[in-house]
Amino acid sequence: MDKEITDYSLKRPSAELVGYLTYLTPQRIQIFGRTELGLFEQLSSDLRYENLAKVMVQEVPCLIITRGLPIPQEFVRLAEDRGIPLLASDRSTTQLYYLLIRFLANRLAPSTLVHGVLVDVFGIGVLITGDSGIGKSETALELIRGGHLLVADDAVEVQRVDEENLHGRAPQSIKHLLEVRGLGILDVTKLFGAGAVRDEKEIHLLVELEEWKEGKYYDRLGLDPPQTLTILGIPIPKVTIPVRPGRQLASIIEVAVMQNRLRSKRM
Amino acid sequence: MMLTRELTINNKSGLHARPASLWVQTSSRFRSNIKIKHGNSVVDGKSILGILSLGLSTGSVFELLVEGEDETEAVVALEKLMIDLESQDR
Questions:
Q1: Which of A154, A172, A185 to substitute to test the interface with B, most B CBs within 10 Å?
Q2: A148 is known as an active-site residue
Q3: Does A2 fall in a domain?
Q4: Helix or strand or coil: residue A46?
Q5: Distances in Å between the alpha carbon of A50 and those of A55, A60, A75, A99?
Q6: Which residue, A12, A109, A171, B40, shows the most beta carbons closer than 10 Å to its own?
Q7: Might you name a Gene Ontology BP term for this protein (chain A) (predicted)?
Protein backbone atom coordinates (compact mmCIF):
# COMPACT_ATOMS: atom_id res chain seq x y z
CA MET A 1 0.00 0.00 0.00
CA ASP A 2 1.75 3.12 -1.18
CA LYS A 3 -1.18 5.48 -0.93
CA GLU A 4 -0.43 8.83 0.60
CA ILE A 5 -2.92 10.96 2.52
CA THR A 6 -2.32 14.59 1.63
CA ASP A 7 -5.65 16.22 2.42
CA TYR A 8 -6.84 16.56 5.99
CA SER A 9 -10.49 16.88 5.13
CA LEU A 10 -12.79 13.92 4.76
CA LYS A 11 -15.52 13.00 2.33
CA ARG A 12 -18.89 11.37 2.82
CA PRO A 13 -19.97 10.58 -0.73
CA SER A 14 -23.72 10.31 -1.05
CA ALA A 15 -24.75 12.58 -3.89
CA GLU A 16 -21.82 11.05 -5.76
CA LEU A 17 -23.25 7.57 -5.27
CA VAL A 18 -26.27 8.52 -7.31
CA GLY A 19 -24.25 10.07 -10.09
CA TYR A 20 -23.61 13.72 -9.11
CA LEU A 21 -19.84 13.76 -9.51
CA THR A 22 -19.01 17.49 -9.72
CA TYR A 23 -17.51 17.63 -6.21
CA LEU A 24 -16.03 14.17 -6.01
CA THR A 25 -12.73 15.09 -4.21
CA PRO A 26 -11.22 11.60 -4.51
CA GLN A 27 -7.95 12.72 -2.88
CA ARG A 28 -9.71 12.69 0.48
CA ILE A 29 -10.38 9.78 2.77
CA GLN A 30 -13.85 8.51 1.91
CA ILE A 31 -16.13 7.67 4.81
CA PHE A 32 -19.17 5.48 4.47
CA GLY A 33 -21.62 5.45 7.35
CA ARG A 34 -25.26 4.48 7.81
CA THR A 35 -26.51 7.15 5.39
CA GLU A 36 -24.15 6.30 2.55
CA LEU A 37 -24.51 2.55 2.86
CA GLY A 38 -28.29 2.91 3.21
CA LEU A 39 -28.36 4.88 0.00
CA PHE A 40 -26.09 2.36 -1.66
CA GLU A 41 -28.45 -0.46 -0.79
CA GLN A 42 -31.39 1.41 -2.31
CA LEU A 43 -29.69 1.25 -5.67
CA SER A 44 -30.64 -1.54 -8.03
CA SER A 45 -28.07 -4.31 -8.02
CA ASP A 46 -26.73 -3.50 -11.48
CA LEU A 47 -26.25 0.19 -10.64
CA ARG A 48 -24.39 -0.52 -7.39
CA TYR A 49 -21.12 -1.59 -8.90
CA GLU A 50 -21.29 0.94 -11.70
CA ASN A 51 -21.91 3.94 -9.43
CA LEU A 52 -19.49 2.86 -6.74
CA ALA A 53 -16.78 2.41 -9.37
CA LYS A 54 -17.06 6.13 -10.12
CA VAL A 55 -16.56 7.03 -6.46
CA MET A 56 -13.87 4.48 -5.59
CA VAL A 57 -11.40 5.70 -8.18
CA GLN A 58 -7.70 4.87 -8.11
CA GLU A 59 -6.85 8.20 -6.48
CA VAL A 60 -8.77 7.48 -3.26
CA PRO A 61 -6.17 7.11 -0.49
CA CYS A 62 -8.37 5.09 1.83
CA LEU A 63 -11.98 4.18 2.48
CA ILE A 64 -13.51 3.64 5.90
CA ILE A 65 -16.79 1.98 6.77
CA THR A 66 -18.11 3.05 10.18
CA ARG A 67 -20.27 1.54 12.92
CA GLY A 68 -18.96 -1.92 12.17
CA LEU A 69 -21.53 -2.19 9.36
CA PRO A 70 -21.36 -5.23 7.10
CA ILE A 71 -19.20 -4.50 4.06
CA PRO A 72 -20.93 -5.07 0.70
CA GLN A 73 -19.23 -7.28 -1.86
CA GLU A 74 -18.75 -4.44 -4.36
CA PHE A 75 -16.49 -2.52 -1.95
CA VAL A 76 -14.17 -5.46 -1.46
CA ARG A 77 -13.93 -6.11 -5.19
CA LEU A 78 -13.17 -2.48 -6.10
CA ALA A 79 -10.73 -2.07 -3.21
CA GLU A 80 -8.77 -5.09 -4.41
CA ASP A 81 -8.85 -4.12 -8.08
CA ARG A 82 -7.76 -0.56 -7.48
CA GLY A 83 -5.45 -1.03 -4.53
CA ILE A 84 -7.51 1.11 -2.14
CA PRO A 85 -7.08 0.30 1.57
CA LEU A 86 -10.51 -0.64 2.92
CA LEU A 87 -10.86 -0.10 6.66
CA ALA A 88 -13.66 -0.61 9.15
CA SER A 89 -14.37 1.18 12.41
CA ASP A 90 -16.80 0.53 15.26
CA ARG A 91 -17.23 4.24 15.88
CA SER A 92 -20.07 6.32 14.52
CA THR A 93 -19.31 8.53 11.54
CA THR A 94 -19.49 11.71 13.62
CA GLN A 95 -17.08 10.39 16.24
CA LEU A 96 -14.66 9.18 13.60
CA TYR A 97 -14.86 12.50 11.77
CA TYR A 98 -13.95 14.41 14.87
CA LEU A 99 -11.03 12.13 15.71
CA LEU A 100 -9.62 11.93 12.20
CA ILE A 101 -9.81 15.63 11.40
CA ARG A 102 -8.06 16.53 14.60
CA PHE A 103 -5.36 13.94 14.00
CA LEU A 104 -4.84 14.72 10.32
CA ALA A 105 -4.85 18.50 10.72
CA ASN A 106 -2.09 18.02 13.26
CA ARG A 107 -0.02 15.56 11.24
CA LEU A 108 -0.36 17.37 7.93
CA ALA A 109 0.25 20.87 9.30
CA PRO A 110 3.10 22.71 7.56
CA SER A 111 6.26 22.70 9.65
CA THR A 112 9.81 23.93 9.59
CA LEU A 113 12.95 23.80 11.68
CA VAL A 114 14.05 27.10 13.17
CA HIS A 115 17.41 27.94 14.67
CA GLY A 116 16.72 29.35 18.10
CA VAL A 117 15.72 28.58 21.65
CA LEU A 118 12.12 28.23 22.75
CA VAL A 119 11.26 29.00 26.35
CA ASP A 120 8.04 29.45 28.27
CA VAL A 121 8.27 32.73 30.18
CA PHE A 122 5.31 33.52 32.46
CA GLY A 123 3.24 31.22 30.25
CA ILE A 124 4.21 33.05 27.07
CA GLY A 125 6.12 31.11 24.42
CA VAL A 126 9.25 33.08 23.55
CA LEU A 127 11.47 32.09 20.64
CA ILE A 128 14.95 33.53 21.10
CA THR A 129 16.88 33.86 17.84
CA GLY A 130 20.21 35.35 16.83
CA ASP A 131 23.57 34.36 15.40
CA SER A 132 25.50 31.49 16.93
CA GLY A 133 27.54 32.46 19.95
CA ILE A 134 25.40 35.48 20.80
CA GLY A 135 24.21 33.87 24.03
CA LYS A 136 20.81 32.36 23.34
CA SER A 137 21.41 29.23 25.38
CA GLU A 138 23.04 31.17 28.22
CA THR A 139 20.00 33.43 28.34
CA ALA A 140 17.74 30.37 28.37
CA LEU A 141 19.77 28.95 31.27
CA GLU A 142 19.28 32.18 33.24
CA LEU A 143 15.56 32.04 32.51
CA ILE A 144 15.34 28.38 33.62
CA ARG A 145 17.13 29.30 36.85
CA GLY A 146 14.56 32.01 37.28
CA GLY A 147 11.75 29.44 37.20
CA HIS A 148 10.84 29.55 33.52
CA LEU A 149 10.62 26.48 31.30
CA LEU A 150 12.75 25.15 28.47
CA VAL A 151 11.02 23.76 25.40
CA ALA A 152 13.86 23.43 22.86
CA ASP A 153 17.45 24.58 22.45
CA ASP A 154 19.22 25.28 19.15
CA ALA A 155 16.71 23.64 16.85
CA VAL A 156 12.97 24.15 17.20
CA GLU A 157 10.41 22.26 15.16
CA VAL A 158 7.75 24.82 14.39
CA GLN A 159 4.36 23.69 13.23
CA ARG A 160 1.48 25.73 11.98
CA VAL A 161 -1.40 24.13 13.81
CA ASP A 162 -4.15 26.37 12.41
CA GLU A 163 -4.65 29.72 10.73
CA GLU A 164 -3.36 31.70 13.70
CA ASN A 165 -1.12 29.55 15.82
CA LEU A 166 2.41 28.23 15.68
CA HIS A 167 3.56 25.49 18.01
CA GLY A 168 7.16 24.71 18.78
CA ARG A 169 8.80 21.57 20.12
CA ALA A 170 12.23 20.01 20.28
CA PRO A 171 13.34 17.36 17.78
CA GLN A 172 13.08 14.06 19.69
CA SER A 173 16.85 13.40 19.70
CA ILE A 174 17.74 16.62 21.53
CA LYS A 175 14.64 16.99 23.70
CA HIS A 176 15.22 18.92 26.92
CA LEU A 177 18.93 19.30 26.28
CA LEU A 178 20.72 22.61 26.51
CA GLU A 179 24.21 23.33 25.29
CA VAL A 180 26.23 25.93 27.12
CA ARG A 181 29.74 26.62 25.94
CA GLY A 182 32.23 25.61 28.58
CA LEU A 183 29.79 23.26 30.30
CA GLY A 184 28.77 21.07 27.39
CA ILE A 185 25.41 19.48 26.83
CA LEU A 186 23.16 19.71 29.89
CA ASP A 187 20.19 17.49 30.63
CA VAL A 188 17.78 20.09 31.95
CA THR A 189 15.31 17.57 33.38
CA LYS A 190 18.05 15.89 35.45
CA LEU A 191 19.61 19.16 36.59
CA PHE A 192 16.53 21.22 37.35
CA GLY A 193 13.73 18.65 37.50
CA ALA A 194 10.71 17.84 35.40
CA GLY A 195 9.18 21.18 36.38
CA ALA A 196 11.78 23.06 34.35
CA VAL A 197 10.76 21.73 30.96
CA ARG A 198 7.75 21.33 28.75
CA ASP A 199 7.28 19.40 25.54
CA GLU A 200 5.40 21.85 23.40
CA LYS A 201 4.47 25.49 23.49
CA GLU A 202 2.64 27.98 21.37
CA ILE A 203 4.96 30.71 20.06
CA HIS A 204 3.76 34.20 21.03
CA LEU A 205 6.84 36.36 20.84
CA LEU A 206 10.15 36.45 19.01
CA VAL A 207 13.18 37.94 20.66
CA GLU A 208 16.12 38.52 18.38
CA LEU A 209 19.47 39.01 20.06
CA GLU A 210 22.04 40.90 18.05
CA GLU A 211 25.45 42.36 18.58
CA TRP A 212 25.29 45.94 19.80
CA LYS A 213 26.29 48.17 16.95
CA GLU A 214 27.49 51.69 17.68
CA GLY A 215 25.43 54.16 15.76
CA LYS A 216 22.60 51.77 14.98
CA TYR A 217 19.15 53.00 15.82
CA TYR A 218 17.37 51.27 18.68
CA ASP A 219 13.91 52.00 19.99
CA ARG A 220 14.42 54.37 22.93
CA LEU A 221 10.87 55.38 23.72
CA GLY A 222 9.01 52.13 23.09
CA LEU A 223 6.78 54.02 20.70
CA ASP A 224 7.97 52.47 17.44
CA PRO A 225 5.36 50.45 15.59
CA PRO A 226 5.64 46.83 16.74
CA GLN A 227 7.79 44.65 14.47
CA THR A 228 6.68 41.25 13.30
CA LEU A 229 8.33 38.33 11.58
CA THR A 230 6.33 35.90 9.48
CA ILE A 231 6.90 32.20 10.02
CA LEU A 232 4.92 29.73 7.90
CA GLY A 233 2.60 32.57 6.95
CA ILE A 234 1.80 33.67 10.49
CA PRO A 235 3.11 37.03 11.73
CA ILE A 236 4.67 36.90 15.20
CA PRO A 237 5.51 40.04 17.22
CA LYS A 238 9.23 40.57 17.41
CA VAL A 239 11.59 42.60 19.53
CA THR A 240 15.26 43.12 18.76
CA ILE A 241 17.55 43.33 21.75
CA PRO A 242 21.14 44.48 21.37
CA VAL A 243 23.60 42.47 23.42
CA ARG A 244 26.42 44.04 25.38
CA PRO A 245 28.37 42.78 28.38
CA GLY A 246 26.59 43.73 31.55
CA ARG A 247 23.09 43.60 30.10
CA GLN A 248 20.91 41.17 32.00
CA LEU A 249 19.27 39.48 29.02
CA ALA A 250 17.03 37.20 31.08
CA SER A 251 15.49 40.15 32.93
CA ILE A 252 15.14 42.10 29.70
CA ILE A 253 13.27 39.18 28.13
CA GLU A 254 11.00 38.85 31.17
CA VAL A 255 10.13 42.52 30.84
CA ALA A 256 9.70 42.24 27.07
CA VAL A 257 7.14 39.51 27.69
CA MET A 258 5.23 41.61 30.21
CA GLN A 259 5.34 44.62 27.92
CA ASN A 260 4.13 42.57 24.98
CA ARG A 261 1.24 41.31 27.07
CA LEU A 262 0.28 44.87 28.05
CA ARG A 263 0.44 45.99 24.45
CA SER A 264 -1.68 43.19 23.11
CA LYS A 265 -4.33 43.95 25.77
CA ARG A 266 -4.44 47.58 24.73
CA MET A 267 -5.13 46.65 21.13
CA MET B 1 28.21 35.17 -2.46
CA MET B 2 27.30 31.97 -0.76
CA LEU B 3 29.25 28.78 -1.19
CA THR B 4 27.38 25.50 -1.22
CA ARG B 5 28.71 21.96 -1.17
CA GLU B 6 26.95 18.66 -1.18
CA LEU B 7 28.61 16.31 1.27
CA THR B 8 28.07 12.68 2.14
CA ILE B 9 28.77 11.17 5.52
CA ASN B 10 31.26 8.37 4.96
CA ASN B 11 32.56 7.61 8.43
CA LYS B 12 31.11 4.66 10.36
CA SER B 13 29.42 6.41 13.26
CA GLY B 14 27.84 9.26 11.32
CA LEU B 15 27.77 12.79 12.69
CA HIS B 16 27.15 11.73 16.28
CA ALA B 17 28.36 13.38 19.46
CA ARG B 18 32.14 13.21 19.05
CA PRO B 19 32.43 13.84 15.30
CA ALA B 20 29.76 16.53 15.66
CA SER B 21 31.78 18.28 18.34
CA LEU B 22 34.85 18.19 16.08
CA TRP B 23 32.72 19.68 13.35
CA VAL B 24 31.52 22.47 15.63
CA GLN B 25 35.07 23.13 16.83
CA THR B 26 36.14 23.56 13.22
CA SER B 27 33.18 25.60 12.04
CA SER B 28 33.34 27.92 15.06
CA ARG B 29 36.83 29.05 14.07
CA PHE B 30 35.32 30.98 11.19
CA ARG B 31 33.37 34.18 11.16
CA SER B 32 31.21 33.09 8.24
CA ASN B 33 27.64 32.08 8.64
CA ILE B 34 27.55 28.27 8.36
CA LYS B 35 24.41 26.26 7.84
CA ILE B 36 23.64 22.61 7.23
CA LYS B 37 20.66 21.63 5.16
CA HIS B 38 19.28 18.12 5.30
CA GLY B 39 15.91 17.44 3.72
CA ASN B 40 13.65 20.29 4.72
CA SER B 41 15.66 21.13 7.81
CA VAL B 42 18.29 23.81 8.04
CA VAL B 43 20.37 24.10 11.20
CA ASP B 44 23.25 26.22 12.38
CA GLY B 45 26.52 24.54 11.49
CA LYS B 46 28.14 25.91 14.63
CA SER B 47 25.63 24.43 17.03
CA ILE B 48 26.10 20.92 18.31
CA LEU B 49 22.48 20.33 19.26
CA GLY B 50 21.32 21.60 15.89
CA ILE B 51 23.57 19.09 14.15
CA LEU B 52 22.61 16.25 16.48
CA SER B 53 18.94 16.96 15.85
CA LEU B 54 19.43 16.06 12.18
CA GLY B 55 20.56 12.55 13.13
CA LEU B 56 23.03 12.33 10.23
CA SER B 57 24.28 8.77 9.85
CA THR B 58 26.56 6.95 7.43
CA GLY B 59 25.38 7.55 3.89
CA SER B 60 23.39 10.69 4.71
CA VAL B 61 23.78 13.47 2.20
CA PHE B 62 23.59 17.07 3.33
CA GLU B 63 24.21 20.48 1.92
CA LEU B 64 26.73 22.83 3.44
CA LEU B 65 25.92 26.54 3.06
CA VAL B 66 28.65 29.01 3.94
CA GLU B 67 28.50 32.76 3.61
CA GLY B 68 30.92 35.39 4.89
CA GLU B 69 34.38 36.86 4.67
CA ASP B 70 36.23 33.57 5.24
CA GLU B 71 33.82 31.27 3.42
CA THR B 72 36.43 29.65 1.17
CA GLU B 73 38.68 28.71 4.09
CA ALA B 74 35.70 27.41 6.03
CA VAL B 75 34.56 25.14 3.22
CA VAL B 76 38.09 23.78 2.74
CA ALA B 77 38.50 23.10 6.47
CA LEU B 78 35.14 21.35 6.78
CA GLU B 79 35.68 19.22 3.70
CA LYS B 80 39.06 18.21 5.09
CA LEU B 81 37.43 17.31 8.39
CA MET B 82 34.98 15.00 6.64
CA ILE B 83 37.90 13.22 4.96
CA ASP B 84 39.82 13.01 8.25
CA LEU B 85 36.81 11.49 9.99
CA GLU B 86 36.55 8.88 7.28
CA SER B 87 40.23 7.97 7.40
CA GLN B 88 40.10 7.60 11.20
CA ASP B 89 37.85 4.60 10.71
CA ARG B 90 40.58 2.71 8.85
A1: A154
A2: no
A3: no
A4: helix
A5: 9, 16, 11, 31
A6: A171
A7: regulation of carbohydrate metabolic process
Question: Which chain A residue lies closest to B43 (C-alpha atoms)?
Answer: A115
pTM listed for this prediction = 0.75
Nearest CA-CA distance, residue B84 and chain A, Å: 24
Residue range A9-24, pLDDT digits in tens: 999 999 999 999 999 9
Are A171 and A236 part of one and the same domain?
A: yes
Q: Is A154 a catalytic residue?
A: yes
Tell me how long chain B is: 90
Which pLDDT score is estimated for A267? 45
CA B45, CA A67: separation in Å to the nearest integer? 52
Q: Residues A56, A144: one domain?
A: no
Instruction: Indicate the helix (H) or strand (E) that contains A72.
Output: none
Same domain, yes or no: A152 and A74: no
Q: Which CATH number does the domain housing residue A84 bear? A: 3.40.1390.20
Q: Are residues A103 and A115 in the same domain?
A: no
Domain annotation for chain B: domains and CATH numbers? 2-88 (3.30.1340.10)
- The ipTM, to two decimals, is 0.80
Nearest CB to B44 within list A112, A154, A177 = A154
Q: What is the pLDDT of residue A209?
A: 94
* Three-state secondary structure call for residue A263: helix
